[in-house]
Amino acid sequence: MSELAVDLARIQFAFTVSFHIIFPAFSIGLASYITVLEALHLKTRQHQFLELSKYWTKIFAVTFGMGVVSGIVMSYQFGTNWGVFSDKTGPVLGPLMGYEVLTAFFLEAGFLGIMLFGRERVGERLHFLAVAVVAFGTLLSATWILSVNSWMQTPAGFSYNEQGQFIVTDWFEVVFNPSFLYRLVHMVIAAYLTTAFMVAGVGAWHLLRAPHNELARISLSMGMWMALLVTPIQIVAGDMHGLNTLEHQPMKVAAMEGHFETRKGAPLILFGIPNEETETVDYKVEIPYLGSIILTHSVDGEIKGLKSVPPEDRPPVAIVFWSFRIMVAVGFLMLAIGLTSLWLRRKKALYETPWFLKICTWSAPCGFVAILAGWVTTEVGRQPYTVYGHLRTVDSVSPIDAAAVGTSLAVFVVVYFAIFGAGIYYLLKLMRKSPTKYEQDLDSRVVTRLSHGNASHDIVDDASPRQGES
């Protein structure tokens, strides 16, 4: 097996999974958001929540479909490019992925039709139940998939059979492996934040064009509340995940932090250029002792460096180093936007500040950037293993020819950009449509109410019912 064939197989899987991961992440958060909107409508009887639910359900349907299609392609790659990996890990990972289909996917598929087409047929309470079940199904799907990925990162509960395959000795340890809960919490919160910023960004975009659009105000307000309240939780969850990674994958953390030398009282390197040839970080800007404080919660805590293992056992440092910083930077950007929204809300200027609305609009996709950067950090940081510490990537590839993989990769690039490019264009087209048909011709009573200074009330105030609208 040539090194080029291995690299091309990795690039192909990375390319397809990069397209795939953004759609399920968005659908996880969006399904839960629609469930909240349906619940608020049932509780308050305010039609604005119902209108927003209808608006985002259309977007969810397209997102869900694109996620399913992009996921199917990945499954085939396990058999084509990664046959050895499939054979070795099949007794462990096969049942887990089968459980995802039998539970989560069937659950989603069974109630998706009611969610999309049954609103006028089954009654609002049963429709709410269907939406809630679909949302639960998306979370259950994420649970199984993250259990699979986490086992590859921190394998547990297994032994080997005579053929050298991984076999299960304890299913509980397999499913609830050491990093599973940390990854699950981190990913689900990331999905919620991704959706929050998309919802807020769409609301902000429409407010720039129609400042009195009530449903856009609700979208912006709900999205910013989520950003304000959940981003700090995500930062704490990320810190706990980092400590878990330090325990089980110290070389990944060493690459993330740019530490080549093992040392106590390690600094936090903010920026720099990792140089794997000289095994140093050039032009670095660092804060003394902060690295050890963050990672070990001790000033003189010891951090293992990359030099503690042979070069062939180290992950690619530069990619992991920079993807981690992109993820962290986006996370703190989210926090800053959330805090700014609170300041503007207290000044009763959340909906009438053009510069902030523009920031929200441009930051709408930042959740996707953070998810992709985090995924790159996680997966590239696991190298040179597919099953960390037990099965190397170079030993996981099928006996394939580099030319064949290169050809299929080229086809994937063309087809994906054509099909999913069209899908993303259609999603943006749906988002460009106003969530209310009253954007251009507002009810005179709403204009009167807004002109009396009540424009900046919170969610419930913004969603006060207007008679005769549906």
Automatic annotation (TrEMBL):
Q: Which family does it belong to?
A: Belongs to the cytochrome ubiquinol oxidase subunit 1 family.
Query: What Pfam families has UniProt attached to this entry?
Result: Cyt_bd_oxida_I
Q: What is this protein called?
A: Cytochrome ubiquinol oxidase subunit I
Checking InterPro entries in the record gives: Cyt-d_ubiquinol_oxidase_su_1 (IPR002585)
The transmembrane segments are 12-34, 55-76, 96-117, 126-146, 184-208, 215-237, 319-343, 355-376, 402-428
The subcellular location is:
Cell inner membrane; Cell membrane
- Which organism does this record belong to? Enterovibrio qingdaonensis
Tell me the PANTHER family matching this sequence: CYTOCHROME BD MENAQUINOL OXIDASE SUBUNIT I-RELATED (PTHR30365:SF14), CYTOCHROME D UBIQUINOL OXIDASE (PTHR30365)
- Please tell me whether the keyword Membrane is annotated for this protein: yes
Its record classes its membrane topology as: Multi-pass membrane protein
Q: Which UniProt keywords apply?
A: Cell membrane, Electron transport, Heme, Iron, Membrane, Metal-binding, Transmembrane, Transmembrane helix, Transport
